[in-house]
Design a protein that fits this description.
alpha+beta; six-stranded mixed barrel; 12 strands; elongated
Length: 400
């Protein structure tokens, strides 16, 4: 009776004796596992990047958008409604308990000019509470004044990138710029913030929401962001907002989107995306299984005399079966580990060469890929092992 350790030694000896064949078998699995590691790392990186973008404004934030909908949408996706959200709606929300700050928002794109320089940039019409609500700091000057009870003034605050494009090294404070067809005085510059879902908040100019409504000829704001106390349940604030706006509008013709709802929806969507990407990489593993099956079948054909000799000296059929199956598993283990090492190395190279591409090792998928490679080895080696075990000793020895 051959022990387990003896079986492993014989399997490794056989693999070492056929280096070229064994290398080709392992290589097919190495490529498959490496593909899973790389693709899932990209998917996991995108997953983390998008969630980070949403959480950079804090977790106790709620958005009110016009139009009643039961599906998830980005701000401004629902812009037509019987009664738009107005600036007065936003200012009325400030009086609610547990509400720290409220910010109406209108977004568009316009031509920005200063002297001979001009460029198109994002224009955000916002309220005075933007630095607190969106957690963006000023680098110089001051932010927009509170125009809630007066006619909005033509003041502008520049994003850091737009300020560098228009003024290079000079100070923009007090300078006049043209936004669209109207002149504005620059009163502040924001600190760098980066991008959020495609919007470069640094290549942006901030003006009063009332001025943006006039500029883009809109009847209502695209979104009202509400910052509430973090120690209060979001459901409590949500009920208070609904009561107030229903009393003002006569019905619920708006949608409330909490940060937790957005994160939960995004997390489920991005998890499915990562899974789908991993499944694409799994196709390479499936191709590798064909290679394992083919090589093991060839191995059985080439080693008929060896099988006959083992059977003649008393090796039982189950020993022959285990021998060939253990060879397939050993090759799969080598291919799986080699694929993991290669995949991790390539991911690190990608991270160094393309820092803008978000990548993060998805260890759960890496572990799953290794397990799948072992299962593939077992599945692909069963039929050749059964064929080898079924051979009769005398017929096998005649091939010598």
């Amino acid at each position: 009776m051959m022990s387990f350790s003896e079986l492993l030694k014989l399997s490794w000896r056989t693999i070492g004796a056929h280096k070229m064949r064994s290398s080709l078998t392992a290589f097919s699995l190495i490529i498959g596992v490496a593909a899973v590691v790389i693709l899932t790392s990209i998917g996991q990186g995108i997953h983390r990047f998008v969630l980070t973008q949403f959480t950079q404004f804090g977790s106790n934030l709620m958005a009110v958008v016009p139009g009643k909908t039961t599906t998830f949408g980005l701000s401004g996706a629902t812009i037509s409604t019987v009664r738009p959200l107005s600036l007065d709606d936003a200012y009325s929300l400030k009086r609610l308990d547990n509400v720290r700050a409220v910010m109406p928002m209108v977004q568009g794109n316009a031509r920005i000019e200063f002297g001979a320089k001009q460029r198109r940039a994002n224009v955000f019409g916002v309220g005075v509470s933007l630095p607190e609500v969106w957690q963006i700091k000023l680098s110089s000057g001051r932010f927009l004044p509170d125009d809630a009870q007066s006619i909005p003034r033509a003041f502008a605050v520049l994003g850091s990138k737009l300020r560098a494009e228009l003024f290079v090294a000079g100070s923009p404070l007090g300078q006049r710029i043209t936004i669209g067809n109207e002149r504005y005085r620059v009163i502040g510059v924001m600190a760098p913030k980066g991008q959020m879902l495609g919007f470069d908040l640094d290549d942006t100019v901030f003006i009063a929401a009332g001025k943006a409504l006039e500029m883009f000829d809109r009847q209502g704001v695209m979104e009202i962001d509400v910052l509430y106390d973090g120690n209060v349940p979001s459901a409590t604030v949500e009920r208070a907002i609904k009561r107030l706006l229903v009393a003002r509008h006569g019905r619920e013709d708006f949608t409330l989107i909490t940060q937790s709802q957005m994160l939960a929806t995004l997390d489920s969507i991005l998890s499915l995306l990562t899974l789908a990407i991993g499944a694409l990489g799994g196709i390479s593993l499936l191709v590798g299984s064909v290679g394992v099956f083919t090589i093991m079948t060839i191995a059985v054909s080439e080693r008929v005399s060896e099988i006959g000799l083992l059977r003649a000296i008393g090796a039982e059929r189950r020993i022959i079966f285990r021998l060939f199956l253990s060879e397939a598993l050993a090759l799969s283990a080598v291919g799986g580990l080699g694929g993991i090492v290669l995949g991790i190395t390539l991911v690190q190279i990608l991270d160094a060469v393309l820092p803008a591409l978000p990548v993060q090792l998805a260890w759960a998928y890496i572990g799953a890929a290794f397990v799948v490679s072992l299962l593939i080895g077992a599945a692909a080696g069963v039929i050749p092992a059964m064929k080898a075990a079924a051979m009769k000793p005398l017929e096998a020895l005649r091939t010598e």
